[in-house]
Amino acid sequence: MNSNQLSINILVPIGALGLGVDESDVIRGIQLGAHAIACDAGSTDSGPAYLATGVSKYSRAAIKADLKILMRARNDAGIPLLIGSCGTSGCDKSLDWTCEIAIEIAIELGQQPKIAVIYSEQEPQLMVSYAEKGRIGPLPPNETFEPDLFSACDRIVALMGPEPYIAALKEGADIVLGGRTTDTAVLAAVPLMLGAGVGPAWHAAKIAECGALCATRPREGGVLIRVGLNSFVVEPLRPTNSCTPNTVSAHMLYENSNPFLLYEPGGVLDVTNAKYLAIDERTVRVIGSCFKVMPYTMKLEGAARGGWQTIMLVGIQDRKVLANIDIFINRMHAVLTALVQKAMGSAAGNFHISLRPYGWNAISGLSVKEPVAAPQEIGLLFIATAQTQEVATQIAKTCNPWFFHLPLEESQGLPSYGFPFSPAELERGQVFEFKLNHIVQVKDGFELVRFKYVNWKEHAHA
After folding, report:
1. CATH number reported for the structural domain that contains residue 326 in this entry
2. In terms of residue numbers, what domain contains 197?
3. Do 285 and 319 share a domain, yes or no?
4. Which of 64, 232, 334, 453 is a plausible cystine mate for 200, CB 3.0–4.6 Å?
5. How many domains does the chain have?
6. Are 90 and 236 found together in one domain?
7. Is residue 213 part of a domain?
8. In this structure, is residue 13 part of a structural domain?
9. Same domain as 215, residue 256
10. Same domain, 291 and 328
11. What SS3 string covers the chain?
12. Do 427 and 453 lie in a common domain?
């Protein structure tokens, strides 16, 4: 291939494995000349529970359906398939779970692809040693941290760059299943390996990371990126969809506070001088992207189990309450807290009560500025957090009478708010929280990574 006409084409079928891959999109991407299929499968968007427990956000059936389409297409086309952040969190347990699904699919399809599995979960004690050497630091808004944070985590993962994927492909892997990885790295790996421009490779990967989210119809399929030496082209897989300079450039703001800089392992993507040019009504070319090399770092994510919660829900249409929601919520919180302290005493332990008025400010938690019309109704959510599920439920039961019948003022008769469930107390289970949002300094992209290859002899009689 003439270097001046270099084009490394990556098929990105969907924003995340499990969302629902359309087989016709994949077929079209291969017909357009895809050299590889790459897809992200993880996120922290839905909170810390998936990392702490090692359980996927998406169902096994959804993951298997998407992966089967991609594995069949990969085999027919003879191109590699790369999946990053397997099982939502990319921890070892989730990665092994995804690998088991891939093996099951391969057996069903009569395939024996070379599958590389790349782990990036970290041992807390190892991270303590890195911290003691000054190789770990907090990311904003954190300013300091204590080493005991690591031992408090149930699981810790380090976000990989593209180097482990490239190494696996050079070893002949047909399918690469990765642990926690930056969304862009899994897409940039093949273009970087095959000699595309570093800036265009990283920028194209950022734009395509969520599939068609960079197009006018963001829920319609995926995209194909064509990465060259000095530019890249992005085209939606669905004929009815379109990419425009506006939709493509806007994606630099997705999950990124700076629209011009994107920090990745080993450097920063700078698109300050990038230009977004419409080739036609559906396709956009981007020039002017550059990547500045920096000391290699990997982001650390850590999550842990916390207390337990029991919730109750009530609907309120009382006009006086709705005209004075903040006063009502403050009064109720004080009444319920005092009630628990009086009735349960030390048995309540270290507890917390939260009241969230949906339809008012439950999402933001910020004070509502006047003048604002009173809502027609609110759904008031009660959340009791305690050290055990039993205690959380006992707190909810203690609060139950006043949660459903507290008047706005003492002089008023007892109202009855609308509760949708009986029994009213719903045990939500354990609470999880993120503990780490840090970076660790490493010599290269392999220092905290482990490789395994599927041994098909072990599955010969499955």
Report:
1. 3.30.70
2. 3-120+159-296+442-459
3. no
4. 232
5. 2
6. yes
7. yes
8. yes
9. yes
10. no
11. CCHHHCCEEEEECCCCCCCCCCHHHHHHHHHCCCCEEEEEEECCCCCCHHHHHCCCCCCHHHHHHHHHHHHHHHHHHCCCEEEEEEEECCCHHHHHHHHHHHHHHHHHHCCCCCEEEEECEECHHHHHHHHHCCCEEECCCCCCCCCHHHHCCCEEEECECCHHHHHHHHCCCCEEEECCECCCHHHHHHHHHCCCCHHHHHHHHHHHCCHHHHCCCCCCCCEEEEECCCEEEEEECCCCCCCCHHHHHHHHHCCCCCCCEEEECCEEEECCCCEEEECCCCCEEEECCEEEECCCEEEEEEEEEEEEEEEEEEEECCHHHHCCHHHHHHHHHHHHHHHHHHHHHHHHCCCEEEEEEECCCCCCCCCCCCCCCCCCCEEEEEEEEECCHHHHHHHHHHHHHHHHHCCCCCCCCCCCCECCCCCCCEEEEEEEEEEEEEEEECCCCCCCCEEEECCHHHHCCC
12. no
Residue 313 and residue 216 in one domain: no
Same domain, 290 and 375: no
Q: pLDDT tens for the chain, 462 residues: list them.
A: 344 589 999 999 999 999 999 999 999 999 999 999 999 999 999 999 999 999 999 999 999 999 999 999 999 999 999 999 999 999 999 999 999 999 999 999 999 999 999 999 999 999 999 999 999 999 988 877 887 899 999 999 999 999 999 999 999 999 999 999 999 999 999 999 999 999 999 999 999 999 999 999 999 999 999 999 999 999 999 999 999 999 999 999 999 889 999 999 999 999 999 999 999 999 999 999 999 999 999 999 999 999 999 999 999 999 999 999 999 999 999 999 999 999 999 999 999 999 999 999 999 999 998 889 999 999 999 999 999 999 999 999 999 999 999 999 988 888 999 999 999 999 999 999 999 999 999 999 999 999 999 999 888 765
One domain for residues 336 and 411? yes
